[in-house]
Amino acid sequence: MSGPGLITSYLDALARQLPGQMVEELADGLEETYRRHLGLGLTSEAAAQAAVTEFGDPGLIAAEFARAHPARRAARGLLAPGPAAGACWAVALVTGRAWTWPIPVAARIVPGVILVAVVALLAVAARGIRYRPVGRAGTAGCAGTAVLDGFMIIGVLAADPAAAPPGPGERVTRPGFGVRSG
To answer: What is the DSSP letter of 89?
Structure first.
């Protein structure tokens, strides 16, 4: 393959794995490297080969971009405190006796299914080595986390009578709180 053809093939391989703007930046650097090798007296083919070799394998370049993807960092940031957050929810639901709340079975199952899906998406984003899947999974996982949190907060406030704020003129009489007798 001729020098410019080799560079074009190399950039095509990158374009299959990375967004266009990133490939354009890499193309500029590759072009500069190619011209530097030409300036050193190499033939077009040898300069192209040297530039491509200097840049490295397209798959490794894409993997490094995936490792630095903001969605990957966000996914790791959400997964790290996940067990502690889950424990807090468990304590809140157990102390609120969630099993006695008058909610349909589907409303009890849906949050668990969403949680499994969100954790799976975040795990793909946190461990992935392909740029686009890391971004998509991380974005979906972060959005899913927000939806799940909102669903749970609204669900608890709507279903747990103890979580409802007192009405006008009502006194709080929860055990250990509010009005004291005697």
So the answer is: H
Least confident of 53-62, 75-84, 154-163, 167-176: 167-176
Do both 122 and 59 map to the same domain? no
Going along the chain, which residue ranges are E strands? none
CA-CA-CA-CA torsion sign (67, 70, 72, 73): positive
Higher pLDDT, 20 or 100: 20
Tell whether pTM > 0.85: no
Q: Are residues 128 and 78 in the same domain?
A: yes
Q: Which helix (H) or strand (E) holds 54?
A: helix 44-55
Tell me, what's the pLDDT at 93?
80
Q: Is 5 left (phi over 0), alpha (psi -120 to 50) or beta?
A: alpha
How many domains is the chain built from?
2
